[in-house]
## 1
Amino acid sequence: MKKFDKDRLLLAVAGPVLALVSALVLTVIVLAASGVDPIDPLRIMIDQAGYEDIQVLIINQAGIYYLAALAVAIGFRMNLFNIGVDGQYRLAAMISAVVGTAVSLPGPLHVLLIVVVAMLTGAFWAGIAGALKARRGVSEVVSTIMLNAIATSLIAWLILPKNFGVQPAGSNDLTTGDIPESGWVPSLSLPGGDIYGFTFVAFALGIVYWFVLNRTRFGFDLRATGASESAAQASGVDAKKMIMTSMLISGAVAGLTGMPLLLGESHTYNLSFPLGIGFTGITIALLGRNNPVGIFFSALLIAFIDKASAGLDQNGYAKEIGTILQGLIVIAVVVSYELVRRYGIRRQQQKVGEELAAGHALKTDNKEVAA
Amino acid sequence: MRRITRIATVGLASAALALSATACGGKKSSDAGSSTSSSGTKEASAAIAYDIGGRGDQSFNDAAYAGLEKAKTELKIKTAEAEPTEGESEADKVQRLTELARKGNNPVIGVGFSYAPAIKKVAAKFPDTTFGIIDDTSQTDKNIANLVFNEEQGSYLAGVAAAKTSKTGTVGFIGGVEVPLIKKFQAGFEQGVKDTNPNAKVLSTYLTQPPDFSGFAKPDLGKAAAKGQLDAGADVVYAAAGLAGSGAIEAAATAGKWAIGVDSDQYNQPGLAKYKDHILTSVTKDVSLSVFDLIKSVKDGKPESGEVRYGLDKNGVALADSNPQYKAMADVTAAVEKAKADIIAKKITVKTAP
């Protein structure tokens, strides 16, 4: 079996690498076609990543993306498409900011309360889609997208000064008030800036994700249901319960997405709280093949493109080159994964055929791999 | 097995390519990382960081750009600009302002209230640089100039003009994003309409809800909203929606009705030249003046600091009269002039919230 795994690992790595390289090549072609120096912007982006402060930005952003991508990946492993991570984390950040501002507790408890409220809110919002799917068979893709829009409107209403919002004197912003300092998570100070404490929690969650999926009965049930719902059901897995649980967990993790920013930087939910992270999370989960290590590197990559492309502006290039690159990566990922998958299947069939023809018994462990 | 070798070779080769690319970048960047602070030049330079929508929004950001360009030619200084990405966080804004300040730009101006917390942080790090923030007075410091406008006063005049011009007695207001700032526009406009014609109906629509700021950036949203209002009988549409407002202007012009522009004098915007005959007037918010004034004050060695307010009295907000058709409507311009005088004389107080 071991040698066969090496084979599969190679195929698994070939997908993303093929995707990245073809995305890069396509970007260069696009740039050249539009009359822009195709290499210089990429060189500037790599240069940018050398600056300490940009590196800190990249790490922090990667932590945020990592949480969003994990939330998406949990659904993906179950064949559930939680497109609603975006709404879930924004609502969670807003509600937990309101709660965090209203109470005053000793340090760790305060933070814990905010985090728990965020997880519960995210779980609740995703749970609506889960319940609809489990009980009524409503496609979670449709319901989560619609819940995103509802979350936006709900937040806009909740943040009005007559409800929970505050309009600081002289400001045109609306906030939820400032969370007292006991509710802040300390950051790691580096020469280039502060790395949010919660970023480490984010990456640690990747280990939990790996353990739960691969080393627990629940994780097995989840993967089994994802692979074949009917087969899982036949072996005694309650599919409806699995849909509900995995949506709740996905939502709870989604709820954490806003935490690095809320606890480490803004300490309030205001009008310029970022949105769209949930959708980037989908890209990252896809690119990382729902694997905690893969997601980590994809999160870093997308964060790198985000932050490094911002500097293009001041060097006479459009920073949208970064957006083009990201878009092409998404297309290339889908295409190259499919190509590699087909190739893998064909090769497997061929191998089996060859061995049958040679009259060998079907033993997998005497296969040699040339690589 | 041979095939896997081929795929592996391709994979390895491309990985090696990618790695070597990063490797050579890595070496260079560590040098650059230490030499960033020395790149500041002696030559005077001013910088602005744009709000969502960026340069080319024919409106708010372009007004700031106009001020910067004016300073460039009249004061003979260098300029720098930076644009935001949608969905960015406060850390990115801090980064952008820091970058601009570190390169020796002075002043550094944040266009839009969302820069306020970031300006406060960066201003503390660069005490010798003057920072400007447009539309916010909540964050103050010795080296921060808060450039604010009485948008409601200009919008009031637009309301007067709209009520006087409308034949159907129904006028429309389109706000980009439902935030307090845009509500000032709405409040002034509605009050102006009602004071002029108590029976007039004002249809008010917002394109998006925060934190979705695409209502300032997507012309198609403005177009759809304007169409809705025109269908409901409005014949003058006032859009305070940044770049999205150009969609509203397009819709109104296509329907042969009146549009009222915002921030810049949109009658004179080259990007809107096709529709200019239907742009009745524009509520100008002279962001360019405020940007120019601040740059000039820094150049003269007497940097502005604290709240700098631009109202009707200083022509910081005004109603443009570059459309000859508007100028020909004597009763409309007379009513507008009277209202303007009344506001300056404080005979009329314009509300800042609807």
## 2
Amino acid sequence: MSGRAPLPDAVRLLSFEDESRLFVKLRATLAWETIRSMLSDARLRLSLVVLLSGMFWAALYGLFVEGFGFLDALHAEVISLLFNTFFASLMVMLVFSTGILVYTGMYCSTEAKLLLTLPVRAEAIHAHKFREAMWFSSWGFVLLGSPMLTAYGVVRHAAWPYYVVMLPLMISFVFIPASVGSIICTTLVAWMPRLRLHALTIGVTVACVAALGLGWSMFSQARVDSMSAAWFERTFARLSVTEQKLFPSWWLSMGLIEAARTERDGSMMAASLFESLKFLALLIANALALQHLAGWVARIAYRKGYSQLTGEIPARRRRPLRWFDRALGHAGFATGRPLRLLLVKDFRLFRRDISQWSQFAIFFGLLGLYFLNLRAFNYHNAYASMIGYLNLAVVGLILSTFTTRFVYPMISLEGRRFWILGLLPLHRDQIVWSKFLFSFVGSLGPCCILVLLSDCMLGISWPLIAQHELCCVMLCMGLSGIAVGLGARMPDLREASPSKISSGFGGTLSLVISSLFIMATVMAAAVPTHLFLLSHTLGPSVVSSHGILAWAGGQWGSIAGALVVVGLGLTATVVPLTLGLRAFRRLEA
Amino acid sequence: MIEFDHVTRTYGAKTAVSDLTLAIPRGELFALLGPNGAGKTTTIRMLVGLLHPSRGAVRVCGHDLVKDPRAAHLHLGYVPDEPTLYDKLTGREFLWFIADMFGMPQRLATDRIDREVDHFELGEFADDLAESYSLGMKQRLVFAASFLHDPDVLVLDEPMVGLDPRSVRIVKDLLAARTREGMTVFMSTHTLAMAEEMADRVGIMVRGQLRFLGTIAELREQMALESTTLEQLYLEVTSGRGGQP
């Protein structure tokens, strides 16, 4: 039995190049089909994505042109420091994000399971999944980096070679941290399976603590002398750690700065361009070497790691929050026991779905970090109020992405379990109400705390804090109402993937309506307050003392603004929920 | 064609498969039976190279699944319990992808794809995107893909889940014909009637150990239960009351 059978006539092992070519062909076909279905089924979403991306790009470009204009006049060295800090931060983020995406694609996807049973090289599968991970982790860099670098070129009056080398410099740079992330991930899974999670947790914690420490050290003393020469000197000294010549981020910065250099002398200009090309060559060489190393690691470690991971049994689940479930299940509020039990179930599912709570924690954690650093500057009253409202809008917008992504599909997913729920003594309305309560109660705490933190850091007065909190409560209620109501009105019972449900027409509509609701709510509260503060701090000459503006800037204007906010919140809650309840009662599962 | 050589697979402190030694020759249809958690899925995963044994070796046509997985996979066809397809590929595009991955020449691939589309009656929906397929349609497509390169060894994990009676008949007839031509089939199933109807030999696994290996007639003989059904024999073996057959 141990003698090897000859290969069947019909088949042969492919070369690495042939395998790669097949994966590229596969990726192209999948991309084309995805674009085609988006053009036919999700035009609204596609148009919104293109439009918003264009607007985002243009706004960033404008901002960077202004910023670089200011900095260029100030001191040229600032640009170098800015580039180094920006690219060094991105480098660290790309290592983590690509590592996580490589892990998801290579070890947790059903595609990997299929490919590992085909006669394909492990390194070819790795290259295929690595390209995917790199694309997903670096498109943000391109969206953020391209307006910045274009603006820099325009401000510096850079010649055309700058724009030619800009993209190759960016792409070759991205390959370096992405390859490092991939190598770390593949190595950890294969050789440290038991330590994998701990290592990841420690790594992320260290990175967060380092970021916090850096932020704190930069801004802790800044309140006294912000934007002074001493402040700049201290900041320079602390950020100089990013100017290490062995960092790829430094090579990229230098490559860009050299390419953008404008010299009157032609030979000097050629020398600058040559310097830039040397940095490009350095980036490409390192990118290729690391890519090769990542492929080599995958060849020896991928199948072994996959087997290790598949063979791990999940640790016995501890239930540290059992008291919470028990308390919620026995809570005496007027919701009825079945509804409370549904709530307990939803909170349990949320806790156990790492993709939900981790994204929630990351986004709200970053917002919290930003709010904590708001104390760094001294604000004018009216300015502080405006920032407070902008922060309120940001909290609302982030919450709306969560309600669209996670709350909107809940009814559709519940509809798939009708065979369970249909047999229980439950009224369908209770299912819809439980989702609404889950979203509203779950979002209220984190959002109100964040808004309070922002206001406290900005030194906003208590009446204004109360108004912000009222807006926040209305936003949580309205956004929950929109997501649950539309989710019940337009359920997709065939789809099992929540991301696909939320990216359909209903999900996009929910996101658009949520954004409009946030803008209307914040504007309704902010305009009267801002006018009031302007007239009281800068004098009545700034704001008209007669007519609608005077009325809006007065006491009655603020009261009317608050009433409009409450009205908008109730409308955004009641109307979609009524439509959703009506449709869900009639739904035939 | 298939060889398990003192294979043990542990998950931490738990032993999922314990010292499994089993050889399945060319042209045999082998059915692996056992209750949930007996180690059937672990055995299948080791056979297709998704899991590495903690000890011992698994070989297909003489190729070690750990040391030489690609050569082993050239001889293997695999139908998992949950069909994996690309949603945004049509059935025909998926078949082409698999044929290309096995390095099949264009002309031969065209003929084989047409042959399998015909066998599994995929013609009506072969040019639709897989995202629109029902579970049964997906399962038929995966079957077609696994037969494309005429594998020497076909591994089936609960193969009839989601198939309608007509498709089940097609699969059964095809398996019977191919095993006559020399293909080896390794099938894990809970459907005892199918094992009884199709299998040349059965293996009954309980808590990671192969409790019985042989034909159904041998099982009856060893259990001294002449006129009983396979279901009764299976329950006897897996309950442990019947002792070691």
